[in-house]
Amino acid sequence: MSATSRDGFTNKFGVIAAAAGSAVGLGNIWRFPYVAGENGGGAFLLVYLLFIVMIGLPVMLSELLIGRRAQKSVFGAFRTLAPDKPLFMSVGIMGVGAAFMILAFYAVVAGWTMEYTYLAITDSLSGMTPSELSAFFSEFQSSTVGPLVWVGVFMILTAGIVIGGVKNGIEKYTKILMPLLLVIIIILSIKSVSLEGAQAGLAFLFKPDFSKLSGDVILEALGQAFFSLSIGMGVIATYGSYIQKKENLIHTAVSVSFADSLIAVLAGVAIFPAVFAFGIDPSSGPGLVFETLPNVFNSMQGGYIFSVAFFILLVIAALTSSVSLLEVVVAYFVEELGLTRKKATIIAASSISVLGAFCVLSDGAFKFFDWTSSNILLPLGGILIAVFAGWVLGRAKVADELKAHGGKIYLTGILMVILKFIAPLAISAVFLHGLGLL
Ligand code: PHE
C-alpha cells in the first residue's frame, strides 16, 4: 500500500500537530505537576528531562520510522517488517492493553476537567478560599454520579472523533488550538510567578535536591517521560504510518519532544509557585492542578475569561490525546479482527467506559491503572521498540528511513548505539532498581 492511499496527513505541520496533539495532554498539565510534586520537584524534573533526551527521543524516532516503513499500525508493522519474530508483536498486544488502562483513568481526569469547565463558565469557584477549593475538589472527586456522567460524555466525544477518521478528526483541531493553549499557560505562569511567596515554588521545581532521588523516583520519571511523549505502545508508530515519505522524521521527533517538555515545564511554572503561595501541599496527588489553579484565576484580572479558556483548551488537549489512544485499539479491532471502524469504535469505547467507571468508584483501580501503564507497560514496550529498530531493522534500514533529510552519518551512529545498548540497558536498570530487584 502506498503512502498516499492511506488516510494520511496533508502536510508536515499536520503531522507534527497531530503527534504533538497526542503527546500534549493531561500528561503535561495534570500528571507532570502531580507526579513531580509527589517525587520531590527539582531532582525529578532533571531526571525526567534527561530521560526525554536520552531515551524518549530515540524511542519516538524508532516508532515513527517503524510505522512509516511498514505503512501499518503497530501489529501489522512488526509482522510486516519481521514476520519471523513474533516476540515483537507483543508490543502491539501490550499497547492495546496499555491503551485500555490509560484511557480508563484518563477519561476520569478529563471528566474532572469538563466539570471544572462547567464550574468556570458558571463562575462557581470565584470567591472560594484555598482550603475551600481543596475541600470542594475532594468532595467532587469522591462523589459518584457527576464523575461517571462525565466519563461517558468524554468517551462519546472521543469515539465520535475516531469514527470520523484521521484527516477530518484529528488534524483540523490541533493546528490552531494547541498554540493557543501554550499562550494561556505562559500567561498563567507569569501570573503565578508574580504571586507573593512564589519563590519557594520556583526553588522546589528548579533547585534539585538529590537526596530526594530513589529508585522509585527515577522509575516515576521514566514512566512520566514515556507517558507524556505517548511512546512505548504504538501510538506514534501508527501516526508514523500516516507520514509521507518526504517528511523528515528527525525533525518531527525533535519538535514534538521539545514542545511536549516545554509545556510540561511551563505547567510546572504555572502551578508550583501558586502551590506554595496558597499553602497547598505539593504532594497532594492527582487533585493538585484542580486545587491550585482556581486560586490563580481568583487572584488575577480577567480570571473568569482565563479560567474558561484554560479548561476548554485542556479538555481539547485531552481529547486529541484520548483520540490517539482509542485509535490504537480501533486499529487493532479493524485490522486484526476485521470489524468495521464504527463497530470497533463503539465496542472499544464502551468497554473502556466500564473500566473508567471502576476508576471513578475505586481510587485503588485508578492508581493501579495509572502506575502500571506508565511505569511498567510503556517502558517495556520501549525496550522492545528500541531493540527492534537497533537490532532487527538495523543500521542500513534506519539510515535509509532517515537519509533523505540530512540524517547525518554520525547522528545515525549515535542513534544506533542508543537504540542497541543505552536505551534497553538503561530502561531495564531503572526498571529493576525501581521495583527493588537491583
Ligand atoms: N501523552 C498523553 C498526555 O500527555 C497521554 C498518552 C499516553 C497518549 C500514551 C497516548 C499514549 O496526555
TrEMBL record:
Membrane topology designation: Multi-pass membrane protein
GO molecular function: symporter activity
Subcellular location: Membrane
Cellular compartments per GO CC: membrane
Domain of life: Bacteria
Transmembrane segments: 12-30, 42-66, 87-109, 148-166, 178-205, 225-242, 254-280, 304-334, 346-369, 375-393, 414-435
PROSITE patterns membership: NA_NEUROTRAN_SYMP_1 (PS00610), NA_NEUROTRAN_SYMP_3 (PS50267)
Major place of residence: membrane
Keywords: Membrane, Symport, Transmembrane, Transmembrane helix, Transport
Family to which the UniProt record says this protein belongs: Belongs to the sodium:neurotransmitter symporter (SNF) (TC 2.A.22) family.
Name of the protein: Transporter
UniProt organism field: Carboxylicivirga sediminis
Organism taxonomic ancestry: Bacteria, Pseudomonadati, Bacteroidota, Bacteroidia, Marinilabiliales
